[in-house]
Amino acid sequence: PRVRPEAQEVAEKSKGCMGALLLNLEIISLDDYCNTRGKQEKNHTAANVRRMREIQRNSRAREQEKQEKKNTPVKALWKSTQYEGVESKVKNFMQSPPQAPRPNTERPHSAPAGSRRQENFNSEKEKFQPTRSQTPRARSPSPNFVARNARAAKSYELKRSRSQLALRESDEKYQQGLKNYEETVKGKTPSYLRSRQRQWDMQERDRIRNAPDPTVPEGHTVLPDKERKATLTTLRKSQQELLERHRLLPIRSADTMGVRNRKTELEKQIMEVDEAIKVFERPRVFVRLGE
């Protein structure tokens, strides 16, 4: 292959680099080895002994200090110089000789009534008390502690610590609460959400009820169905009355002016009532606002 002209320059620059690197690594490793070899291992036994002796010296010094404090005389209480010559009344009472005993005023042959009753009761009690037999009783056999311990070992229950009992109780309470939650709460809608849903439904119905109807003409409103039916009933009654009045008009004097006018007026009213009945027979009746 063709060698580039700058290859010789690169070879000269890199000459001796690898050797210097290996020499530097050998020097570092030899220095570390020499440093670790010259160190001495620590004697932990001697250090522990020195520490123990130091603790003993400190303890003896504290004990000696306590002993010196105990031997220190107690400081006398302060006493006023005004009462130095005054003697204590308690001292006179303690140094006075004891008083002589009170003389016995009772007769020598008499005794208290209570003591006589007690003596009589004791004598009667001794009469009725059965005499004990002089034969020695047989000693009860000594308890068999081995058998007792064996029976106790069979019925022994392992006593757990309070922390374990508390942990078990808390675990049981948690499991019981989880069971109650799964039986009564899980998968059911909470009461506050149900009440909120009912409130939303009422608000939606009110909004729909109060919303303007696009089919209602402007300036009009829908007559309630109850009022529409009541008005229709009234119109039909008026229609029957007008027809009855029209039927009772006189026939012989029908050509007179008064009869003609009455007949024309009744026919006009009957036509208006008929038109109104047709309007109110519709399912929805629109009424102008303000009327």
UniProtKB/TrEMBL annotation:
Residues 55-79, 93-171, 208-227 are annotated as: Disordered. It is found in: Cell projection, Cilium; Cytoplasm, Cytoskeleton. Keywords: Cell projection, Cytoplasm, Cytoskeleton. Pfam families: Enkurin. Residues 130-143 have a biased composition (Polar residues). The keyword Cytoplasm applies. One of its GO terms (cellular component) is cytoplasmic microtubule. InterPro entries: Enkurin_dom, Enkurin_domain-protein. Residues 195-288 form the Enkurin domain. Residues 55-71, 116-129 have a biased composition (Basic and acidic residues). Coiled coil: none annotated. This is Enkurin domain-containing protein. It comes from Ciona intestinalis.
